[in-house]
What we know:
single chain, about 210 residues, four-stranded antiparallel β-sheet
Amino acid sequence: MTEGAGPLPGAQPGSADETAIALAEWLKGGGARNMFLGCTPHQPGSWWVPSASGRAVALHDRGFVDVVTTATGLLARRQGEPSLYYLSFAKLALLGPLEGWITVFHSTLGNILMLERRVLADRLVLTCARGLVEVDLADIHHVAATVQVELRSGFGVVGRIDGGSFAVTVGTVSEWGLVDVAPALLVGTGGDTLAELAHGLAHKGGIP
């Protein structure tokens, strides 16, 4: 750095609280209906920031990661487990973000490695150790699989755009998640189902 110059980019990174608030405000004001952000591969972590003045709580200290917001509460997976967990907003307000989680689904395809980043039409795709599972969240206390496809290649569904393609990544399967995750790419066309996506990926042998 030369004399009189400002700090280098990244030289003063924000705290988890500041980063969460800044990102939330940016997304809120962006106006885009579909948005996928990437970052350097790392072990997953999740924080709950109750307000601009509140301190971030590290949910991953209890193993909860890939947290997804629903109309009535939060969904998350726990590292190294095949179960999907739910915490209602009522319990969140009463107990905080570390207590009160209940199991609402158990995968028969091994540990859940990744959650789709948002609920779309009461559906959510779970990337598991031995394939992909789409679950119906219309009744959060009776979550059921609607589509289940075995796929051993390490593909993961990051999300879907409205009425269109899947955002798909690929990585190496580990007990706690996907390792060395590749940048996500849009795959498929409008109307493709999860089964059609998995069939195409299995036969192509990779992300096109």
